[in-house]
Design a protein that fits this description.
Order of helices and strands: HEHHEHEEEHHEEHEEHEHEHEH
Helix content: 25-40%
Shape: globular
Largest sheet: 8 strands, mixed
């Protein structure tokens, strides 16, 4: 469920010493139950100093269900749908897309859904996902039967293709992904980039992990992501999986006043 609205920057979030911008599957939702429970509890007990942004391929309906009924902390903001949704989150867990931040995304997409689906119809290795995304088309991908011609078709349409985890094929507006949308949100909120810790585990997180912000590739990250980030001085390569890797990075990078937390 979504509402289209225009919002003002949240002054509380802009002054919090740490803003965690994290992927969900395999990252914030990854690792052991104990590690997740520990991280979630720490966040909830320190909301006065910790801001939370989900940066995910998941859609608003999934995120609202996740945080309302499954014990996952409610984020302050969401960069969802692989960067094509930028939304605030209210106390009823409703996501409200921020119109001024999504205007360029909508323009770049230019109602391309029907053209994409027609062009990729019956393309080997791709199965259309049923969710009604606004500014993307997504497929489940079978790596063994996938035909590379799909990449050329998307490029000819003037759009971007993103393959992640050898399982997902996303068609996105040109130049739109998790990283650019996160930067747009941080600027809108007045959050200094140095206070934002970015966390991820797959190639669809590369665009945000390569921004130069303090970052963590959690311990269960796919090898292709680790290879792409090799040698990046701003990235902490965690030993802990999922939530444990995030906690490890927060402690290692010392991004908050420990006495306050």
């Amino acid at each position: 469920m979504t509402r289209i609205t225009q919002t003002r920057p949240n002054p509380d979030l802009s002054t919090r010493p740490l803003v965690l911008a994290t992927d969900l599957d395999g990252t914030f939702l990854g690792g052991s139950e104990q590690a997740r429970r520990s991280l979630y509890s720490w966040i909830e007990n320190n909301r006065h100093i910790v801001g939370l942004v989900f940066v995910t391929g998941r859609d608003p309906g999934y995120i609202r269900s996740l945080t309302r009924s499954q014990g996952v902390p409610r984020p302050d903001y969401v960069v969802g749908d692989v960067g094509t949704t930028i939304a605030s989150v209210d106390h009823d867990h409703m996501l409200s897309p921020i119109a001024e931040l999504e205007a360029d995304i909508a323009t770049a997409w230019n109602d391309a859904s029907a053209r994409v689906q027609s062009s990729l119809h019956k393309m080997p290795g791709l199965k259309l996902q049923s969710s009604g995304f606004r500014y993307r088309v997504s497929y489940d991908m079978d790596a063994e039967s996938f035909d590379d011609r799909a990449l050329d078709i998307v490029a000819e349409l003037g759009l971007d293709a993103l393959v992640s985890a050898d399982r997902y094929f996303d068609v996105l507006p040109k130049g739109v992904s998790k990283g650019p949308s996160l930067l747009r949100l941080l600027a809108h909120l007045g959050v200094d980039n140095s206070r934002c810790l970015v966390a991820g585990d797959t190639l669809n997180d590369l665009s945000m992990l390569s921004l130069g912000l303090p970052s963590v590739a959690v311990g269960n990250s796919e090898p292709a992501l680790i290879e792409a980030l090799a040698g990046a001085p701003h990235v902490h390569f965690a030993k802990g999986a999922g939530a444990a890797g995030i906690a490890e990075a927060i402690l290692t990078l010392g991004m908050f006043d420990r006495t306050a937390a």
